[in-house]
Amino acid sequence: MNPLLAEFIGTTLLVTFGNGVVANVVLARTKGQNSGWIVITAGWALGVFVGVFSAQRFSGAHLNPAVTLALAAAGKLSWAQAPGYILAQMAGGFAGGALVFFFYREHFQVTEDAGGKLACFCTAPNIRCVRQAFFCEAVGTFLLVLPVFLMSDATVQLPAASGGVKEIPIGLGTLGALPVALVVFAIGLSLGGTTGYAINPARDLGPRLAHALLPVPGKRDSDWSYAWVPVVAPLLGGLLAAGVASFVH
After folding, report:
1. Which of 237, 224, 48, 191 is nearest to 121 (CA)?
2. Which of 58, 64, 134, 218 is most deeply buried (CB count within 10 A of its CB)?
3. Alpha carbon of 7 to those of 82, 143, 157, 170: distances in Å?
4. On the CB side of 47, how many CA atoms lie within 13 Å of its CA?
5. Mean pLDDT per segment of 10 residues, for the chain of length 249 residues?
6. pLDDT tens, position by position, 56-112
């Protein structure tokens, strides 16, 4: 599969499952209505797991412009590749947001809370302090990207035909995606209560554009005055993580 298509599909899956669990908890008359924060954080973690193991073989499964930018800054990805990756991720974020809307369309129709509808697409701080929200998003992304840099692929030792042993990397296949999902789960549980932990520009801006363009019934504005925070702060957090990782290595 083409790496850009893999990034698009992986990000679409991530956002579909992630925003889907938000819709299931927030919207009226769903089976999961009011099931709580732990359900949302678990759904997002599992969405990351599905997205990563689906795309990793073909693109490395960045699924996040902050990760792509950090890898390029660290010399692990060509700068020429970065724009294509980021555009594919943004398109995937939009597609995932749109799919969730069409999937839960009847529930959007019967939900009166316009703010809750927006939350099914993108994030917002619970206390409106932009400086604090920027700090939280930058730190949250730093704590996502740094472990990715420090994570070493597991290997197994097998007998070699010529004698001795050889190490075979397991890599970030289906089981290898689990540590990344667990990091996202931990961030959501421990640090997600301030801003909703976007920690990914594609996860926030792509669906926010979908909210603005789609015929969501009874919707409010898309909160563009805040929209730059979950874009710029994660990019900064990712770059800081790349810098720290290069220093400790």
Report:
1. 224
2. 64
3. 11, 22, 31, 21
4. 26
5. 96 98 98 98 97 92 96 94 97 98 98 98 98 98 93 58 60 66 97 98 98 98 98 98 89
6. 889 989 999 999 999 999 999 999 999 999 999 999 999 999 999 999 999 999 999
- What are the φ/ψ torsions at residue 227 (nearest 5 degrees)? -60, -25
What dihedral do alpha carbons 6, 197, 136, 246 form, nearest 10°? -30
Residue with tokens 């409010």: 220
Rounded Cα distance between 61 and 12, Å, is 12
- The answer to whether residues 18 and 92 touch, using CB atoms and an 8 Å cutoff, is no
Residue 105: partners with Cβ closer than 8 Å, 6 or more residues away = none
Provide the domain count of the chain: 1
Confidence (pLDDT) at 170:
44
Determine contact, residues 94/204, Cβ cutoff 8 Å: no
Question: For position 189, which CATH number holds?
Answer: 1.20.1080.10
pLDDT score for 160: 66
Alpha-carbon distance of 34 to 40, in angstroms, equals 10
The values of phi and psi at residue 31, to 5°, are: -65, -25
Residue by residue, DSSP assigns 183-195 as HHHHHHHHHTTTT
Residues whose CB falls within 8 Å of the CB of residue 173, separated by 6 or more in sequence, listed in order: 53, 56, 57
Per-residue model confidence (pLDDT) at position 216 = 98
Residues in the chain: 249
Identify the pLDDT of residue 70.
95
Domain span at 242: 3-248
Decide: 138 and 201 in contact? Cβ < 8 Å: no
In the chain, the amino acid numbered 175 is: L
